[in-house]
Amino acid sequence: MLNLLILGWVGTCETIQSVLETKKESQLSDTSIPQIQGAKEKRDRYELVGREFMIATDHPLASQAGVEVWKQGGNVVDVFTAASFAISVLRPQSTGLFGGGFAIVYLPKKGKWAYDFRERSPKKGTALFYLKQDGSPDSEKIVKGPYSVGVPGNVQGLIKIQKNHGKLPLSDIIAPAMRYAKNGFAVYADLASAITKVWPNMNPPMQKVFGIDNRPIREGELLVQDDLFFTLKRILENEEREWIDGETTKLVSKYYNDFDGFINEDDWKSYQVKQTEPLVNSVWGYQILTMPPPSSGVHLITLMKLVEEMGKSKSFPKGLVGEYIQITEAMRVAYRDRALLGGDPVFTEVPVGKLNSQTYIQDEMHEIEKKVVSGNWKEREKPSLPKDSYNTTHISVMDKEGNAVSSTQSINGIFGSVQMVEGTGLVLNNTMDDFSIAPGIPNLYGLVGSKANEIAPGKTPLSSMSPTILLENNGQTKLVIGAPGGSQIPTTIFNTLYHYLFQKRNLYESVSFPRVHHQYMPDILFLDPELKGYFPETDLPFYQVQYSRHRAKVFVVSKEGEKLIGVSDPKGEGVPLGF
């Protein structure tokens, strides 16, 4: 067994550097591929090889929380839950206890499960509620502020999953998060930048937490979250009851007394975590387990199957030109389906079987072939660009037996609604923006939707989050993967799997290879800047190309023989840790 990485912290302040200084160096592979943002030189920080257990998250101290409970005899579910509570403290700009998420749990000797603990629309959340007096959509109301908030599910989901499959008491699971909240941790660059960006829009309780001397807290300064510590303490004492009729929910309901009672006691009592089977399919020689709708897992499978099918056709140009056409057009189809058909299956029919069927894949491939052969490309237009937003988080965990958890969690945009309920330390989500406020009207990420994703009480909005686990044909776990990054989540997972499984690059190179993204609308092919001069623009004049940094980040663990390889995206702050 490899020695466990020795983890530590300095004084009372948890720091990223205290974890990184203990990581062992690894050899860089000599390769000339244009990896992103100096990733080649940073490999020793963002990749780790183990044999017993591995976790990849978006903050070193979240990974450390997972290792801490593993050392106490916990299993992968305990590890995932501890890391989830911890990351809610460590990345308040991305996720939190007032958010929601999805999780795929695979325990080879026991079964597989999909958990939906996403935010739901409050009972007062209706389509009419977000229209102005003249009948036009009120986009500002749904994007930020108290009415952009969905009923959260993170706490209920984490507790339910841990009770169903974990081993340790909740006190062990939640201890690292409580320590990080009470003792504080050093503010890192991304958090400092996010705080400064939204500071003018924060309400007073939020500025009190994320400010010092009436100005935004700065990188390197200590962030202590006392109110959040006491909220965690109440969760430990009352468990899920705290999120039904506890002090925390009473404080939130009191806050909403000034906002038409938009979220009230009935919403807390009616919330249910949804437990179901994962969406299962075969693609690229593996069995894929991902989230069913309202996740975008179904569209990820469509994308992968289309690329696989087009690879068999002789109608496409050879080399890079053909490769980019196949990937771009497959993404266009997947995101078109998402825009037109995606939604909560309780409220609308999402034809999952059809969208992933071989007949549908072949029909769509033939339509793409016709376009390629005829040269009948749509005339380029100047599209409107999506707003830039970094959000969400992902946790990937696997042990040597193949037990695995893949979970993506979020409060939606940067610091969600940019509202905090006094006395709770909770940053409220702005997940109502994930609904389609009106057909054809883009949301924060430039994504459009249809009536299938319209707002309704108790409804779950369509999501890009697509936590995924791949299995070998014999049922052994191959890989655990997921990503934060809004609309770019499915294509980020695709890009990584394409380079790793299709192009046979190593895992780290696959994560750090420049990415391609198309989301149907806007009609733009987004490329990482490193692809400039590499992408064959003159041969593909019918694509509107924009070179901009791909905002999504990948967190992945893969099993290669007896080794567990963990990679946290080199664009972020996180690291993989394990034995």
Automatic annotation (TrEMBL):
GO terms for biological process: glutathione biosynthetic process; glutathione catabolic process. Cleaved by autocatalysis into a large and a small subunit. It catalyses: an S-substituted glutathione + H2O = an S-substituted L-cysteinylglycine + L-glutamate; glutathione + H2O = L-cysteinylglycine + L-glutamate; an N-terminal (5-L-glutamyl)-[peptide] + an alpha-amino acid = 5-L-glutamyl amino acid + an N-terminal L-alpha-aminoacyl-[peptide]. One of its GO terms (molecular function) is glutathione hydrolase activity. The active site is at residue 392. Belongs to the gamma-glutamyltransferase family. It comes from Leptospira bouyouniensis. NCBIfam families: g_glut_trans. This is Glutathione hydrolase proenzyme. L-glutamate binds at residues 118, 410-412, 434, 463-464, 486.
